[in-house]
Amino acid sequence: MQKNKNSIISFTMQAGFGLGGFWVFKYLFIIGTTKYPSLEFVNGFLIFFTPLLLLFYLVQYKNTKTDNTLKYWEGVKFGITLFFFASIIESVMVFIHVTRIDPAYISRVTEETIEMARSLNFSDTMMDELKRQSSFSPFTYIFRQIMSNIFIGFILSLMLSPIASRININIKNLKK
Questions:
Q1: The model scores a pTM over 0.85
Q2: Number of H helices, E strands in the chain
């Protein structure tokens, strides 16, 4: 069990660089939307590659194991850990963005959120609560983003682990 746990951690750290690098690339489009709003569509398109990368890494992890199997909760654990390490990589870029490149970014996003809530005719008490919860520091913003990514990793892993356990594609098999 300990060897398996170390194997998951080791593999997710390595794969986290890949997914985290992809998220950094994707985040560059978020930064670019302040000057070129049309880049938001590119970012929206790139979001769909995250589940595909998770599935790829799940299958790749399964193929590295000697028994070539992936248990359901092992896949879920893998996804959560993968998204944690990728979030750490992405958080460096987010920190640079919200502290150096565009310090007003968090307040602008907060204002847009409040304005959208106003357009939906939220009650005054809900608006006050939204304003109270929306004012936060860059560290709080980054922490929330990391937690959000981990939660998304959990949900995606719940759905993709059974699929990954059934996929039997291996690079060695393709060379034959």
A1: yes
A2: 8, 0
